[in-house]
Write a structure and sequence with these properties.
Number of helices: 13
Helix content: 55-70%
Largest sheet: 5 strands, parallel
Strand content: 5-15%
Strand order of the largest sheet: 2-3-1-4-5
Oligomer: single chain
Length: about 240
């Protein structure tokens, strides 16, 4: 199977809605950051790529019809070289809205992951390393907290994509535009159902709160252990 659609838009630009839409149109499965959370080998491949190693993109995307969101979007030019007939979709959004969305969601995830969890679950640690290297360092140059630089990054990425991709293979698409432009670009009929609107912002924020709460687990267990020892000592001494 050859990759037919390459998403060049950064995360938090409606990529999960686009993934859902593409899969409904038959481009399934569609690769997404979720694929790395769920697949250990996917994480290993993308961590290797982020660290400058070579990867076989045909192997990485074996079985996939499309790929959107980070980490795949970070390599859209390399992917287009490997899959020259693929169509490219830049999932667009107002740069300011994009920045605020990232700042309130995915930017908060890595700092919230407890160190003990990363030490005890290697896959979580690899995912964290891969995201940090791919997104925050390689893509955003460790400047995410510089809002002006990030708005410039988004505008430059859009123009870079326009310059790099043949016009007949490129669609600049906003989720607000719905099915029409997307289906016209792909040459398929517009579905009778509404365009999917999958916003994970609230779920991500809840997840961050859970991760922060988990940071207290070792202290709670230690306190419980101490209490059990003290209780046992008191009981034996009685």
């Amino acid at each position: 199977m050859s990759l037919k659609i390459i998403g060049a838009g950064p995360g938090r630009t409606g990529t999960l809605s686009l993934k859902t839409a593409l899969e409904h149109l038959g481009y399934a499965p569609c690769h997404h950051m979720k694929s790395c959370f769920e697949g250990r080998q996917q994480t290993r491949w993308f961590l290797q790529a982020a660290q400058g190693g070579s990867v076989d993109w045909r192997q990485v995307f074996s079985g996939y019809e499309a790929a959107v969101d980070w980490p795949a979007a970070a390599y859209y030019q390399e992917l287009l070289e490997v899959f020259p007939d693929a169509k490219v979709i830049f999932s667009d959004r107002a740069p300011g809205d994009w920045y605020e969305s990232v700042a309130s969601t995915i930017f908060r995830v890595l700092p919230a992951i407890p160190g003990w969890l990363r030490r005890t679950v290697p896959h979580i640690d690899r995912v964290a390393l891969m995201v940090d290297k791919t997104v925050w360092k390689n893509e955003l140059n460790d400047q995410f907290e510089n809002r002006a630089a990030m708005l410039d990054f988004f505008e430059r990425r859009r123009q870079e994509v326009i310059a790099a991709v043949p016009p007949q293979q490129l669609l600049i698409h906003s989720a607000a535009e719905g099915w029409g432009p997307l289906c016209a670009f792909l040459g398929v009929e517009v579905p009778s159902i509404p365009y999917p609107w999958v916003n994970e912002g609230a779920r991500i924020r809840r997840g961050v709160r859970v991760l922060k709460a988990l940071s207290y687990v070792p202290s709670v267990l230690l306190s419980a252990g101490i209490m059990m020892v003290v209780y046992g000592w008191v009981t034996l001494s009685a």
